[in-house]
C-alpha cells in the first residue's frame, strides 16, 4: 500500500539546537517528493521539491535530502519563527492523480 | 502569495443540508485541487480539475461533487452533508500536474452538526 509516514509527530527544540525530520514513503515509483510548512489556521506553504535519490535543496536554515526510501528535512540552528507543522507529500510515477501526504511533524522551537 | 481565496472561511451546517465551497484563483493556473485535512490523516485529495469542465476523482471523493465552469473558479459541493464531512477543506492550484508545487488557499473550516 502506498503511504507516507512522518516522524516524529512532534519535536521540541531549543533555539539553535539542530535536528532532522523524517519522511519515509512506500510508493511504486516516485515522481516527486514535496515538503511544505503549515502554520496554525493557514494553508500549507511550499518549501521544496525533490525528484531523485541524492538530490538536495536548501533554503535558509532548512535543507531537504532524498534517498530511495525516505527524505530528511534538516533544520540548522532553528529560531522560534521556524515553529510550524512540516508536511511531506509524494506523487506516484504510475498515476499522476495520486498525491500522498504524511500527517506532519509539529515543530516547536523555544527561545 | 499566490492569489487563491476560499469562501466561506467558516461554516456550520446541519446534517442533510447541501453545502457549496468556493475556490477562486487569480493566477490562471490550469490545475485546481480540493483536499480535506483531518487530525491523524494528513491532507487527502477529494477531486481535482485539469481544465474548464474537466474534473476527476481523488482518494476520498464519495459524497462530494465538483464543478469548474471558469478557469478561476472551482466549486466543491456536499449534496447532503454528514458529520463525517466535518473537516478543514483546502483548495490548491498548480501550473502542472505535480511537476510544479501546489499553492494552497487559506482553508474553510466546515462543521456539520
Name the descriptors.
heterodimer, A: 111 residues, mainly beta, 6-stranded mixed beta sheet, 5-stranded antiparallel beta sheet, 11 strands, 59% strand, globular, B: 113 residues, 7-stranded mixed beta sheet, 4-stranded antiparallel beta sheet
What portion of the residues of chain A fall into strands of 2 or more residues? over 45%
Gyration radius of chain A (Cα, Å) is: 14 Å
Q: How does the helix and strand content of chain A classify structurally? A: mainly beta
Q: Give unreliable regions of chain A as ranges.
A: none
Task: Describe the structure in your own words.
The complex is a heterodimer of chains A (111) and B (113). With 111 residues, chain A is an all-beta fold. Helix content of chain A is 0%, strand content 59%. In chain A, the strands form two sheets. In chain A, strands 2, 4, 5, 9, 10 and 11 form a six-stranded mixed sheet that branches. Chain A has a five-stranded antiparallel sheet with strand order 1-3-8-7-6, with no helix packed on it. The termini of chain A are far apart. Chain B is mainly beta. In chain B, 0% of the residues lie in helices and 58% in strands. Chain B has no helices and eleven strands. In chain B, the strands form two sheets. In chain B, strands 2, 4, 5, 6, 9, 10 and 11 form a seven-stranded mixed sheet that branches. Chain B is globular and about 35 Å long. The termini of chain B are far apart. The model of chain B has no long low-confidence stretch (mean pLDDT 93). Chains A and B meet through strand 4, strand 5 and strand 9 of A and strand 5 and strand 10 of B.
Amino acid at each position: 500500500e502506498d503511504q507516507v509516514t512522518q516522524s516524529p509527530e512532534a519535536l521540541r527544540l531549543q533555539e539553535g539546537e539542530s535536528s532532522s525530520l523524517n519522511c519515509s514513503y512506500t510508493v511504486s515509483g516516485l515522481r516527486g517528493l514535496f515538503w511544505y510548512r503549515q502554520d496554525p489556521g493557514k494553508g500549507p506553504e511550499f518549501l521544496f521539491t525533490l525528484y531523485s535519490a541524492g538530490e538536495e535543496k536548501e533554503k535558509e536554515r532548512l535543507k531537504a535530502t532524498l534517498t530511495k526510501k525516505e527524505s530528511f528535512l534538516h533544520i540548522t540552528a532553528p529560531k522560534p519563527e521556524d515553529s510550524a507543522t512540516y508536511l511531506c507529500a509524494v506523487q506516484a510515477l504510475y498515476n499522476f492523480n495520486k498525491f500522498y501526504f504524511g500527517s506532519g511533524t509539529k515543530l516547536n522551537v523555544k527561545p | 502569495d499566490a492569489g487563491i481565496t476560499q469562501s466561506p472561511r467558516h461554516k456550520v451546517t446541519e446534517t442533510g443540508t447541501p453545502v457549496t465551497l468556493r475556490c477562486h484563483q487569480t493566477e490562471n493556473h490550469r490545475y485546481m485541487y480540493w483536499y480535506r485535512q483531518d487530525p491523524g490523516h494528513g491532507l487527502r485529495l477529494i477531486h481535482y480539475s485539469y481544465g474548464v469542465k474537466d474534473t476527476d476523482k481523488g482518494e476520498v471523493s464519495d459524497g462530494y461533487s465538483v464543478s469548474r465552469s471558469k478557469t478561476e473558479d472551482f466549486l466543491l459541493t456536499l449534496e447532503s452533508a454528514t458529520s463525517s464531512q466535518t473537516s478543514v477543506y483546502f483548495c490548491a492550484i498548480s501550473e502542472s500536474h505535480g511537476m510544479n508545487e501546489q499553492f494552497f488557499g487559506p482553508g474553510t473550516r466546515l462543521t456539520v452538526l
